[in-house]
Amino acid sequence: MIRLVPLLFAMCIAGPTLAETPPRIAIIIDDLGYNRELGLRAIALPAQLTVAILPDAPRARSMAEAASRSGKQVIVHLPLEAMNNKGPFEPGRVTLAMTETEVHDVFHRALASVPHAVGVNNHRGSRFTRQHSQMQWLMDLIHSTGQLFFVDSFTTHHSVAMEVAQQVGVPAVRRDIFLDHVRDPAHMRRQLERLKHRASVEGQAVAIGHPYPETMAMLEDALPELLAEGFELVHVSELVSQAQTVSKVTTGR
Fold this sequence. Notes:
The chain is α/β, with parallel strands linked by helices and about 250 residues long. The protein has helices at about 5-15, 35-45, 60-70, 100-115, 130-145, 160-170, 185-200, 215-230, 235-250; strands spanning about 25-30, 50-55, 75-80, 115-125, 150, 170-175, 175-180, 205-210, 230-235.
């Protein structure tokens, strides 16, 4: 018993343990840059959220400026080629038909159109993100900035984004939950419960939503509830940093 005293004393003064750390949730609102009213409503949400702004959208710059003033984190929502190419193509889209030089030019034009951006996530991209060579080009560009991170929106289970990011040395994290792929309030609430469970079990979780009226109404009600329940709402960069730390500890890199 006497020998246990120093150990117990050390445990008492060591500070909070991992189990005592509040579960951390990062919510990204995608697709800002077009609808002004819904964009500003997303920016006004009462939490540290991240907004992903489509480059070359008519309100990309003004939304980025407004988000930055409101303490929201800004990232570039870079359009990448999808398996389903129906519908109008977004300006600034990156395709598999492009050369490495063309990808370079589109990427830097996208960065220039979204001030205050500290990271990148993919808009669509179910075809592009499964290609090692092209994802290497993109990750090399992100790495060359020396300051950006990447969020894999994980629009396909065949995505190699996290693998290539680790190889290149780009800080990255993957989306866990889509809040509103079904625009039904009851379904969104169930997705929110899944998000809370994931964060409670893993210690952190990343969700993506969109500036739909239904999503905004749900989050306006739910965000204060999450805080009251003991969850910590953070910018996604904080979970990227934690993911990188965990990766280094796990791999010894």
